């Protein structure tokens, strides 16, 4: 079995990620994803605002979970029937999670247990489209690659709690600022890191 490449040294992580951003400019599929942000955030960021959740239909949620519609994440639709089976519970959990007046870790831990079938990938995707300048994506790919680069402790990639997400989100905010990109684009950059870590990967998006 071929050995996996070694990660960049700590001092080289930011220059390495800058090179990933430069590479992404030459990948048409990546640029399609970047350009889709305005449309996706415009639609679902509005639909998922706390003040609009009372009338949120199941169809809007199932649309959001589909890769062809969200243009960014694949695999989220696997739990769609379970997620929308109890819409009152889902709306209640989303209202808690997406209430920007409460601390992030607190609303994460209070909101997720109310939403059947919703894990960190879907929850952070919801947060990203509602608060695209404040909340980044946390999924299996981003967590694994942040750990590979030494940006987070390795055990963090298996956690699901709000305090860990809050800490990871601070790192994502700092990285996006340092790289001159937004959190939507940064969430896609982890795929390029994944290709370097495991060249057998060929998917554009991430799930978890």
Q: Give the rounded overall mean pLDDT.
A: 91
Question: How many β-strand runs?
Answer: 0
Integer count of domains = 2
What portion of residues belong to β-strands?
under 5%
Main sheet specs: none
Distance, first to last CA: 25 Å
Shape: globular
What is the H-and-E element order? HHHHHHHHHHHH
Tell me the helix content: 55-70%
Which residue ranges are poorly predicted, with pLDDT under 50 across at least 5 consecutive positions?
Answer: 202-208
Radius of gyration of CA atoms, rounded to a whole number: 17 Å
What is the SS-derived class? mainly alpha
| Number of distinct helices | 12
Describe this entry's structure for a reader.
- This protein has 208 residues and is mainly alpha-helical.
- The protein folds into 2 domains: 10-35 and 135-197; 37-130, no CATH class.
- 58% of the residues lie in helices and 0% in strands.
- The longest helix has 18 residues, at 162-179.
- The two termini are 25 Å apart.
- The relative contact order is 0.16.
Task: Characterize this entry briefly.
By secondary structure, the chain is mainly α.
Question: What's the structural blueprint in terms of helices and strands?
Answer:
Layout: H1 13-24, H2 28-35, H3 37-47, H4 58-65, H5 67-70, H6 80-85, H7 87-97, H8 104-111, H9 120-130, H10 140-148, H11 162-179, H12 183-197
Helix pairs in contact: 1-12, 3-9, 7-8, 8-11, 10-12
């Amino acid at each position: 079995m071929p050995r996996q490449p070694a990660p960049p040294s700590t001092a080289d992580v930011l220059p390495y990620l800058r090179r990933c951003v430069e590479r992404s400019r030459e990948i048409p599929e990546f640029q399609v994803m970047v350009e889709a942000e305005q449309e996706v955030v415009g639609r679902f960021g509005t639909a998922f605002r706390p003040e609009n959740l009372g009338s949120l239909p199941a169809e809007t949620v199932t649309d959001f979970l589909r890769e062809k519609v969200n243009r960014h994440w694949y695999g989220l639709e696997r739990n769609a029937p379970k997620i929308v089976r109890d819409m009152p519970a889902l709306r209640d959990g989303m209202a808690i999670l997406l209430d920007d007046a409460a601390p992030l870790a607190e609303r994460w831990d209070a909101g997720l247990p109310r939403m059947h079938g919703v894990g960190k990938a879907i929850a952070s995707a919801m947060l990203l489209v509602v608060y695209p300048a404040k909340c980044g994506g946390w999924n299996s790919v981003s967590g694994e690659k942040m750990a590979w680069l030494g940006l987070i402790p390795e055990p963090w990639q298996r956690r699901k709690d709000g305090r860990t997400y809050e800490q990871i989100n601070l790192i994502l905010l700092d990285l996006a600022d340092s790289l001159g990109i937004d959190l939507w684009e940064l969430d896609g950059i982890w795929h390029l890191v994944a290709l370097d870590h495991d060249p057998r990967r060929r998917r554009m998006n991430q799930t978890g």
